[in-house]
Predict the 3D structure of the following.
Amino acid sequence: MSGSDSISSHSTICERTSATSSLENLGTRHDMTDYRIELGDSRERLVRHPIYKLVDSPERMKAFMEAHIWAVWDFQSLLKAVQRHLSCVTVPWTPTSDPEARRLINEIVLDEESDELPNGSFASHFELYLRSMEVAGADTGPMKKVIEQIQAGVKLSEALLDPSIPTESREFVNRSFSIINSGSSHRIVAAFTYGREDVIPDMFRQVVGRLAEYSPEVWGQFRFYLERHIEHDDEHHGPVCRRIVATMCGSDPIKWAEASEAARLALEARINLWDSVSVRLAAI
């Protein structure tokens, strides 16, 4: 969410030719039509969750953002965990085994950490979200406090004990980090792919439509954030991430089962978050 950024100009932003061509390359080099991730009904339940209809007023939208910002933040940590497993982030540097996957994750990191805004500036999607919260009048204090504590060297587990953090958001972050801390590459990438990149566009589309009913000077930045995610995840990131999971799991049924479990856990964590936030919204 960026300050004076115009939604109408978002379609002209950073259509990166190199990014698109490399993603298409990965798609043609790997014919992965037999995806064996088993999600049960988790994805469908998440996409059809009643929370999207509850976000129907400015006050409810602000409450939604105050809980959801934690998922926006820990997405960045999940993304960096994927980058650590698919590319080399240590010194001395050594090449990793899959250059296409390496290219993809670095492109996603570029988009998520330093996206180009309509006014020519750059920001992470997390920073965009915080700016949108500020413009909308939502409380950013708890999130900023945790960031400051972590930057000061406080352990995440201790920082998350702050009582101002919504309980459901704390639980969601802890579940995300349990996957991150597993150290299992295919589990982490599966959770990132199916718990975030693959499903986020379908979730956000339902919220974007409602924002048109509100004043653009307040909600325009949030709408920009949502539309950027739909654009990146739906058209580029999601499809190729699925192929990376397929490449990592190969013909190993154990890896497919473990990746499926991680994906379901990520989706169920989001459903649990939405369940709790829905109760909070209904009371407003």
